[in-house]
Every structure is written in structure tokens, then in C-alpha cells.
Automatic annotation (TrEMBL):
This is Cell division protein FtsX. It comes from the Bacteria. It comes from Candidatus Portnoybacteria bacterium CG10_big_fil_rev_8_21_14_0_10_38_18. Residues 182-301 form the ABC3 transporter permease C-terminal domain. Belongs to the ABC-4 integral membrane protein family. FtsX subfamily. Keywords: Cell cycle, Cell division, Cell membrane, Membrane, Transmembrane, Transmembrane helix. The keyword Glycoprotein does not apply.
Length: 302
């Protein structure tokens, strides 16, 4: 049993080196795919970080009529906080709004003088509402437009922010869809290349295969080396990809770290080198192994 396993490994290695140019081409395509997938994942992290930053700056403000009491505003705040879509609600009183207005326009004495001449505070109390996801503001706005709140709410600035919110939602969707589509396309290319590489390897070994069948070799003794070859494609591709990623992250880290929640992506890469290798090797071995399985089942029938 162990001897047979050693022979399967040995023949798989022999096939890998014997079909040198074919192995090089297959590994190269797989390396390109793993590189693109890694870069794509990195870009996805960058995009998500940027989008999260933008999303954190978007909210809707609910302005209440001047005659609305603080108690009534806080009741609305309490109801909003019970909604699943709401992440946070902050209350800005009339006095806080007035102080903020004076601070903002402290270099405009005419405006401040006009404000002092008024016998009342013209600024409304408000609630700043932040949703968990940018696509949830519409339902929050719908909740605020209910008949129950019409007597106390003056206006909601949802429509002013709607264009920004809609664009943000579209960007998020495009990033996810584009990333998924490109990953599927690259995986398909790797499958086809590996499939054809194994097919050609089977063809070039047809005489040895026929001899083994004649002497009664088992099914897995014949098929095993090709699985070894497919797995080797993935392992070698993962190692080469890591070798390329090391200087790539080293030189690009200072330029992209500012967009990431990680201060130094190169240090993060070094600290998680084993995890990166296991991820890349897992993807490579899966693609190589699956392609080999399909090719072997098709071209090595009983």
C-alpha cells in the first residue's frame, strides 16, 4: 500500500517535470489567477474601507417644529432607536444648534447682530439618524413620514442626501458584482487550462497507461499520478504567487495603507504569511484537483 502510494507520488512528479513547458504554462496561468484574486481581494478591502468611511459620514437629519417640546423629540428618538435599521440617533437641542450656528458664523458680525435682535431662538431641534446600511435610509424616512409624526416634524433632509445614498449603494453593488464576476471568469480559465494540460499529459503517457492496464494495475494507481500533477500545479503556483506578492506588498504598502484599516499592510502580510499561503494553496489545489478530476474521468475511462 505504502509502496504503491510512493510510486504514485513519484510518477506524478515525473509527469510534472517531463511535461516542463506544459507545466510552466499551466502554473503561470494559475499564478496570474491567484495574483489577480489576491489583488482583487485587497482592492475589495480598500473599496470597503473607503465606502465605510463615506457611509459613516452620511446620515439624515430630522428637524422639528419650533413648538415641539424636548420631551416629544426624545420620544421620537426612542422610537427610532427601536428600529432594526438604525445604528445610532443623536439629539441636537435648539440651544446646541444656536451655539453651533454662532461658532460657524463667528466671522460674520452682521448676521450675529441680526440674530441677537430676535426675541426667540429661530433654530429647530433635530435628530441625526445613522442607518446600519446605506440602503436602509428609505425605510427610515418612510417611518418618519407616517401620520403619527406629521404634527411634530417640520422636515427630513432625506431627499437632499438621496442622490449621494443611491450612488453609494450602486458603487457597493458594482464592486461586489465586478469582483465576483472576475473571480468566476479567472477560475474558469484556470479550469480550462489545467483540464487541457492533464488531457495532454494523459495523451503523452498513453503507452505507459496501456501497459499498466495490461498488467492489471488498479484504477487509482493509473489515475493517482495525474491528481498529484494537478495538486502540484496548485502548490507551485501558490509558492510562486507568495514570492511575487512579497515585493509587491513591500513597495505598494506605503501608498495604499492610508486607505486601509491596517496601518502597514506589508507587516500584516508578513505576520500572516502562513495564512496567505494556506489560502492560496487551498484555492490552487482545489482548482488543479477539480480540473484534473474532470479530465481523468473523461479521458481515462475503463
Amino acid at each position: 500500500m505504502f509502496t504503491s502510494f510512493k510510486r504514485i507520488i513519484k510518477w506524478g512528479l515525473t509527469n510534472f517535470w517531463r511535461n516542463g513547458w506544459l507545466s510552466t504554462a499551466t502554473v503561470s496561468i494559475m499564478v496570474l489567477t491567484l495574483l489577480v484574486i489576491t489583488v482583487l481581494l485587497t482592492l475589495n478591502v480598500v473599496a470597503n474601507a473607503v465606502l465605510a468611511n463615506l457611509q459613516s459620514k452620511i446620515d439624515i437629519s430630522v428637524y422639528f417644529k419650533l413648538e415641539t417640546s424636548e420631551e416629544e423629540i426624545l420620544k421620537v428618538k426612542s422610537q427610532l432607536e427601536k428600529l432594526q435599521e438604525v445604528e445610532a440617533v443623536s439629539y441636537v437641542s435648539q440651544n446646541q444648534a444656536l451655539l453651533a450656528f454662532k461658532e460657524k458664523h463667528k466671522d460674520n458680525p452682521v448676521l450675529l447682530q441680526s440674530l441677537e435682535e430676535l426675541e426667540f431662538n429661530p433654530l429647530e431641534g433635530s435628530l441625526n439618524v445613522k442607518a446600519k446600511e446605506s440602503n436602509q435610509y428609505a425605510s427610515i424616512n418612510q417611518f418618519l413620514e407616517s401620520v403619527y409624526y406629521k404634527d411634530v416634524i417640520d422636515k427630513v433632509n432625506y431627499m437632499q442626501n438621496k442622490e449621494v445614498i443611491d450612488k453609494l449603494n450602486k458603487i457597493i453593488l458594482d464592486v461586489k458584482t465586478g469582483g465576483l464576476g472576475l473571480s468566476v471568469l479567472l477560475a474558469l480559465i484556470v479550469f480550462l487550462v489545467t483540464f487541457n494540460a492533464i488531457r495532454l499529459a494523459i495523451y503523452s503517457s498513453r503507452e505507459e497507461i496501456n501497459v499498466m492496464k495490461l498488467v492489471g494495475a488498479g484504477k487509482w494507481f493509473i489515475r493517482g499520478p495525474f491528481f498529484v500533477e494537478g495538486v502540484l500545479y496548485g502548490l507551485v503556483a501558490a509558492i510562486v504567487t507568495l514570492i511575487i506578492l512579497y515585493p509587491l506588498f513591500y513597495f505598494t504598502s506605503p501608498k495604499i495603507s492610508g486607505f486601509l484599516p491596517i496601518n502597514d499592510i506589508f507587516s500584516y502580510f508578513k505576520a500572516n504569511l502562513l495564512s496567505f499561503f494556506l489560502l492560496l494553496a487551498g484555492v490552487g489545489v482545489f482548482l488543479g484537483g477539480f480540473s484534473t478530476m474532470v479530465a481523468v474521468r473523461k479521458y481515462l475511462k475503463e
